[in-house]
TrEMBL record:
<dbReference type="InterPro" id="IPR001763">
    <property type="entry name" value="Rhodanese-like_dom"/>
</dbReference>
<feature type="domain" description="Rhodanese">
    <location>
        <begin position="15"/>
        <end position="99"/>
    </location>
</feature>
<dbReference type="InterPro" id="IPR036873">
    <property type="entry name" value="Rhodanese-like_dom_sf"/>
</dbReference>
<dbReference type="Pfam" id="PF00581">
    <property type="entry name" value="Rhodanese"/>
</dbReference>
<protein>
    <submittedName>
        <fullName>Rhodanese-like domain-containing protein</fullName>
    </submittedName>
</protein>
<dbReference type="InterPro" id="IPR050229">
    <property type="entry name" value="GlpE_sulfurtransferase"/>
</dbReference>
């Protein structure tokens, strides 16, 4: 499984790269803020919502600490998606936040 550090992600965000970020935390967790541009798909909804994703794109998966996003990565990889797990998740991320 490919991984990315939060510093690498922040550098890509600062460079205005076109990123596909999926936040797999629960509703109450995303209320505390999300990475700008991230799409919220709770981990339990990934299998039923995978059809909404584009297999030609690479997705960066995010959760609180990295374990749930790793599970999401494993599932999506098994379905033929290109995914990257954000190491340390939101606990390690100290960049800009967006509130929805």
């Amino acid at each position: 499984m490919k991984t990315m550090t939060t510093d690498e992600l922040i550098n890509l965000l600062d460079a205005n790269e076109d990123l596909n970020i999926i936040d797999v935390r629960e509703d109450f967790e995303v209320e505390e803020g999300m990475i700008p541009g991230a799409v919220h798909i709770p981990l339990g909804s990934i299998p039923e919502r995978a059809a909404e994703l584009d297999k030609s794109k690479e997705y960066i998966m995010v959760c609180k600490a990295g374990a749930r996003s790793a599970s999401a990565c494993e599932y999506l990889e098994s379905q033929g998606f290109e995914v990257i797990n954000l190491e340390g998740g939101m606990m390690a991320y100290d960049g800009e936040l967006e509130f929805k």
